[in-house]
Design a protein that fits this description.
The complex is a heterodimer of chains A (about 325) and B (about 425). Chain A is mainly β. Chain A has five helices and 24 strands. In chain A, strands 8-9-12-16-14-13 form a six-stranded antiparallel beta barrel. In chain A, strands 2-3-4-7-6-5 form a six-stranded antiparallel beta barrel. The longest helix of chain A is centred in the N-terminal third of the chain and has 10 residues. Chain A is elongated and about 75 Å long. Chain B has a six-stranded antiparallel barrel. The termini of chain B are far apart. Classes of the chains: A mainly beta (about 325), B alpha+beta (about 425). At the A-B interface, α1, α2, β9 and β20 of A face α2, β1, β5 and β8 of B.
């Protein structure tokens, strides 16, 4: 949605009573924002080139555990300079405890008691269209003990995302929360995503682009998944690729390949008695989808074929003239040449 | 401002929801809340109920929202815009600015469309076919997939029409439209799109920012409008359709102009009211083009309102209407023209083929003339967007292309 919510400092200093009362009347979010600002930190480390050396982090235990998004500031030797600036302005050096490649998050530790921290839930605690507030140091606007910036939006969708960063694929696994507050900005990663009733919904993830839409993604790693990681219970999500020993599959389909890899997957020839022939696939059929994945091009078909295993039945969606057909097909083992 | 709209939500929702949702209304946690930071007692209940209203609105329009899959087509490279040879494409149509290409490319995911008739007409955005796909299919909410035919498009609104063939007894759910003129700046608007590839659409909420944008063709909203929902509906709290989400830019430009604004808080939707004539033309396969007079505007000698005619292009509507160099255009269809920018904005309300009434000053003489706008390019009066109908004999018989990945987007093909 993209509103910045301007919040006056609500802690320790003594503002005049009048503006305080006005703020309380107009913003039912004020309490949640103040709550989150006390549990979200600024993070300063080394930058390099276009990679920003600053971010945000959330306090997730009473003994100094802080979660942040993966970035240059926690890479390799540079973490020697990693500093955490607490909401009250105190500065601590941080050490790295653990990383999760699947979520691209890092667990940090500072040598301090942190009684004010977020509780990580075991179950998802937001649904689509719920209000969420992002609290982060986007663009490093806040300095030292200045309160972090807040943006308001709703949960757009909880889904898996196909991500990339500057044309490189980013292997993010599992569900993420796509939100409509704009958080895909330097400094925001590691920030808190909270609900108006002070629940931690997630943590803003590192800056990536969606392969689906080719746009920057405003998203957060759901807090229930963060809990699994912090508890050490995040089982690495195994890809769909079974052991290689099961061998390559053969369908008996030859595609029309003269138009390049980006061309649609038209069937040029069907081998006699092959699985494709038995399933009734014909020359000039266009393959639209295979094993639940959309096949937009010959390249997609080739990629999908790698995932198909002999003896495991798949569904193939075909376009024949103006009809869309669905056929079941039992792949056989490919003959090694 | 938000407080006002949210209070309005509460009023609209009435008491029933209020009671039903009472249990869900958040309570402050006593242990952390200082007195002045506590959620106030006079809590605007609309804040808490709005998400429920958003979900209800989405559920209402969802049966009419479709996923569009495209197959084949050109690869649009990233990086700087491809150089366009001069004199190709429609005159005045500038290539996208350098550096914009990175985000003006469509992604790999499905795109969104909206059913507008029981018999299978679907409206969507031309952005979704920038790749000029060979085949288009539409997946309905029941999961069934249908081959779609791309009919005409309106290049001034970035919308186009698809048609799927259905058995005669199959009736598609048509969404309700908002009442014409029944929309207010500041009211809630919710965008719906399937671009992230999930079975469920993504939802974004915001308010109507302005009504008459881009020469009155679009509504502006601060709900996120992006490739994730181009072609999808923008709805009100009742799930009634306000418009179709599209990329638009007041500066015009190419098929992807306006995409660069996707995260800026500025988004556009084209209302469907009053589009019957255009939809009729699109059903016939026509390409609706911006209307051009065929004059180069200049300043008015001695200052003053209006637009001076610097040159009149040969064979243009202006020449046919008898417009001459040195004439001053003072009004179009009764609207006084202030300057050249204003002229462009007023012309933006019309399309090629429309006839407008010009008030002009020629010396001391005041004249009224009628002028028929054209597109400035006879080649593009018919669809520029292949692929036409999935033909029975269709085959992907293009010349083998070796380095296709590096090939820039080709020009729109000429009519055969």
């Amino acid at each position: 949605m993209g509103f910045g919510v301007a919040i006056a400092r609500a802690d320790n200093t003594a503002p005049s009573a009048k503006p305080q009362a006005a703020a309380a009347d107009n913003s039912p979010f004020a309490g949640a924002i103040e709550y989150a600002q006390k549990r979200t930190v600024k993070l300063i480390g080394a930058g390099a080139g276009r990679e920003h050396g600053y971010a945000s982090g959330i306090i997730v235990s009473e003994d100094g555990h802080i979660l942040t998004a993966h970035g240059i500031y926690v890479t390799g030797d540079t973490n020697a300079r990693l500093q955490i600036i607490m909401p009250d302005g105190r500065v601590y050096p941080a050490t790295i405890e653990r990383r999760s490649d699947a979520m691209q998050v890092v667990l940090l530790k500072i040598d301090a008691k942190t009684p004010e921290h977020f509780d990580l839930p075991t179950e998802p605690n937001v649904q689509k269209a719920d209000w969420v507030l992002s609290v982060s140091n986007a663009f490093k606007v806040a300095d030292r003990d200045e309160p972090l910036s807040v943006n308001m939006g709703i949960v757009s969708l909880r889904t898996e995302i196909d991500a990339k960063k500057r044309a490189q694929d980013v292997e993010l696994e599992g569900d993420m929360l796509i939100i409509d507050a704009i958080t895909s900005n330097p400094g925001a990663p590691g920030g808190a995503l909270v609900t108006p009733d002070r629940k931690l919904a997630g943590m803003i993830g590192k800056i990536i682009e969606s392969k689906s839409t080719n746009t920057r993604l405003n998203y957060a790693i759901p807090s229930d998944r963060l809990r699994q990681f912090v508890d050490g219970k995040d089982t690495p999500i195994v890809g769909v690729t079974p052991p290689a020993s099961t061998g390559k599959a053969e369908l008996g389909i030859r595609l029309f390949r003269l138009s390049g890899k980006r061309a649609p997957a038209y069937v040029d020839r069907v081998t006699t008695d092959s699985p494709a022939a038995k399933a009734g696939i014909q020359k000039d059929d266009l393959i639209l989808a295979m094993a639940g994945e959309v096949v937009r091009s010959i390249k997609d078909f080739d990629d999908m074929l790698q995932q198909v295993r002999p003896g495991e039945e798949i569904t193939v969606i075909l376009k024949r003239k103006t009809e869309v057909l669905s056929v079941r097909l039992m792949p056989v083992a490919a003959v090694e040449e | 401002m938000r407080y006002l709209t949210l209070t309005l939500v509460a009023l609209l929702l009435g008491g029933a929801l209020l009671i039903a949702d009472d249990a869900n209304v958040a309570k402050p946690q006593a242990d952390v809340a200082k007195p002045q930071a506590a959620v106030p007692k006079a809590d605007p209940i609309g804040y808490w109920l709005a998400p429920k209203a958003f979900r209800a609105a989405v559920d209402k329009v969802l049966p009419s929202v479709v996923s569009i899959e495209t197959y084949g087509g050109v690869t649009i490279p990233g990086g700087p815009a491809p150089k366009q040879p001069p004199n190709k494409g429609a005159p005045g149509k500038r290539p996208p600015a350098r550096g914009m290409q990175g985000i003006s490319r469509p992604g790999e995911g499905p795109t969104t469309g909206l059913i507008i008739s029981e018999d299978g007409y679907i409206i969507t955005s031309t952005f979704n076919f920038i790749r000029k796909p060979n085949i288009i299919t539409v997946v309905l909410r029941d999961g069934s997939q249908h081959v779609a035919k791309l009919l005409g498009q309106d290049e001034t609104r970035k919308i186009c029409l698809l048609k799927i063939e259905l058995p005669a007894d199959r009736k598609l759910p048509v969404p309700e439209l908002i009442d014409a003129g029944g929309m207010q700046v500041g009211q809630w608007s919710i965008s719906v799109g399937v671009g992230y590839g999930d079975a469920e659409p993504a939802v974004s909420a915001g308010i109507i920012s302005a009504r008459n944008r881009i020469s009155g063709k679009a509504i502006q909203t601060d709900a996120n409008i992006s490739p994730a929902n181009y072609g999808g509906p923008l709805v009100d709290l009742d799930g009634k359709v306000i418009g179709i989400c599209v990329p638009l830019s007041p500066q015009g430009g190419g098929a992807a102009a306006g995409v660069e604004w996707y995260d800026s808080g500025i988004g556009f939707a084209v209302p469907l009211h009053g589009l019957d004539r255009l939809i009729g033309q699109m059903k016939e396969g026509k390409s609706i083009q911006p209307g051009r007079m065929g004059v180069m505007p200049g300043p008015v000698a001695g200052g003053g309102k209006g637009v001076g005619v610097n040159t009149v292009q040969p064979k243009s509507g202006a020449e046919k209407a008898g417009l001459k160099k040195g004439d001053i255009i003072t009004a179009i269809d009764g609207d006084e023209i202030q300057d050249a920018l204003h002229l462009r904005s007023v012309l933006g309300r019309f399309i090629a083929g429309d006839t407008i009434k010009l008030a002009i000053k020629r010396g001391e003489e005041k004249l009224e003339i009628e002028l028929t706008l054209d597109s400035g390019n006879p080649d593009v009066e018919n669809p520029t967007l292949p692929p036409p109908a999935p033909k029975v004999e269709e085959k992907p018989l293009e010349k083998p292309v070796e380095k296709e990945e590096e090939k820039p987007a080709p020009e729109a093909p000429k009519e055969p």
